[in-house]
């Protein structure tokens, strides 16, 4: 495997006294698309925020391109974020800017390029996601899938080394879903970047990724290539892939005896 | 909203705000406190200042020539020591007299300056020697009543004598 | 050592108090951070310009109309009282002094808080709820410099101008009622007003008040938006809190400032 662009080593993270991540170790190399899967609330988004430096690990190291993100000062962190692109769950487009201005935003804020060059770059990025024709629309006029694609164009505006995707498939119709999926793959290959896709959409992500990590109970509990994962006999992986209701992740939140809660204390008589 | 339109409206907004401030400055208010550089101060003692207040105008021949800047009691003489800031364009002779007057029956009180005949003028920090106190309405009425009573007392016997 | 003891004491005094203190502390830190990022964002004045349009220009109508009505009411009420003492010619003084010293800054600020303050909170809160602020951070653009500071300065710069417009419109309303309707002499209306309203003592102090109010309201508005829980409910509550807190702070601050400026004459 090539040099890892993103590396987690024994990372622990807690909100107050609540451990979200206990001990996470994983790595992603350039050219790879990696999926991180897990149930809701298993700390997947927290992983992305650790990479972006919006959160800092309580223990362990988070490395991006060989640098410990947690140890950087705020200004250095802002400098490093140029290497990152992130697609948020619902796109997070700036509602008061047009599609064109949204994609131009990182270019205008972070570079000194002349306006004519920015215009060309923006149109190129929009062309890559197939939405050059929507340049003058406002975000409110876009469908969910289109908004996601514009956000993708915005995320790749500065040609990032690492792309982060937070639930890119949530709430999309099947066509948009396939479009986004293949765009993730194509863009990663074109940029030569490392992509991390946080998702719980099994079918779509297994089709495009090179490697899968399963996160639960604060750590990586299983990993492997898509083929290996499909064949896996690990009970959690089986439950997740087959979408079974009960399994290692129980349907019921732990509680007292049902009968006792309803006041049917049969045992006492 | 186009960028140019925003600029236009913000510009208009700034102009409207400036006009409102200018209106308040020019039409509504006046600069009563003269800048310190263009005034000189003199003092005057009064037995009673009545309702005179700091910042009350000082007028000569009805023209405002200064302001009252300080009022305090002289602890030795038990008279009110009033400090006046006079416009440095106007000069008054040393024997000018100061009077506390009232504009109208219920109006505010001000100081009237009556120029004298001396060749020498009042110097900054000088004192106006000739003053007459405020007319206090109660004193005026009681004085009037007393004098009425006195004249009545004088007149009664003569009436009887007729 | 006794740091923990102190915290425990506050804990016993009640969570609401501790929560407020934490929030106040955060607000102070937030204010400092706005000031730290202000030079960079003020250099790109275009950003502040948009916020002046948003907070100032869009508030002009409500400010002007309210000012006009307040001035007209003041004139009617004042006339009824003054005419009993035979000093109806002092109506101009009454209207202008109450507006310039007190009502212009205070009522203007209350209207500004409910029109512009709530809008600022809602906009920042929505940007947070839809992850626009987080997206900005990930694009290596500081949201405080790019979004919060321009909104803050837009509010601060708009407030004194709006207060002056409120006063001017109010005095015009007083003129309409006093001179046009009640038939006072326009000459004495204006000249009496002018001779008893002092530019420094009255007009300028009013402007100073409105600057303080502008800072307070803008800070509360951007802070509540930034601090709002990123949900629809959180944003709507934050908007309400902006209006309520601003109103309280403006009135309390008004008392403090008036006491400071009080000269006893």
List descriptors.
heterotrimer, A: 269 residues, alpha/beta, Rossmann fold, six-stranded mixed sheet, four-stranded antiparallel sheet, 10 helices, 10 strands, 36% helix, 24% strand, globular, B: 162 residues, 2 domains, eight-stranded mixed sheet
Q: How would you describe the shape of chain A?
A: globular
Radius of gyration of chain A: 21 Å
Span of the ends, CA to CA of chain C: 52 Å
CATH H level, superfamily name of chain A = P-loop containing nucleotide triphosphate hydrolases
Distance N terminus to C terminus of chain A? 67 Å
Number of strands of chain A: 10
Helix/strand class of chain A: alpha/beta
Look at the structure and give the mean pLDDT of chain C: 90
Percent of residues in helices of chain C? over 70%
Query: Can you identify the CATH class of chain A?
Result: Alpha Beta
Would you spell out the secondary-structure blueprint of this structure?
The complex is a heterotrimer of chains A (269), B (162) and C (265).
Chain A (H helix, E strand, L loop, with lengths): L3 E12 L2 E12 L3 E5 L6 H9 L6 E6 L2 E2 L5 H7 L3 E4 L11 H12 L4 H14 L15 H12 L6 E5 L7 H18 L2 E6 L2 H7 L2 E6 L2 E6 L1 H6 L3 H8 L15 H4 L8
Parallel strand pairs in A: 3-8, 3-9, 6-7, 7-8
Antiparallel strand pairs in A: 1-2, 1-4, 4-5, 9-10
Chain B lengths: L2 H26 L10 E8 L10 E4 L2 E12 L4 E9 L9 E6 L6 E6 L12 E2 L1 E3 L4 H25 L1
Parallel strand pairs in B: 1-7, 2-6, 5-8
Antiparallel strand pairs in B: 1-4, 2-3, 3-4, 5-6
Chain C lengths: L2 H11 L1 H29 L1 H11 L4 H25 L6 H39 L2 H7 L4 H39 L4 H11 L2 H29 L4 H30 L4
Helix pairs in contact in C: 1-2, 2-7, 3-7, 4-5, 4-7, 5-7, 5-8, 5-9, 5-10, 7-9, 9-10
Subunit structure (chain C): The complex is composed of two ATP-binding proteins (MlaF), two transmembrane proteins (MlaE), two cytoplasmic solute-binding proteins (MlaB) and six periplasmic solute-binding proteins (MlaD).
Protein name (chain C): Intermembrane phospholipid transport system permease protein MlaE
Organism (chain C): Chitiniphilus shinanonensis
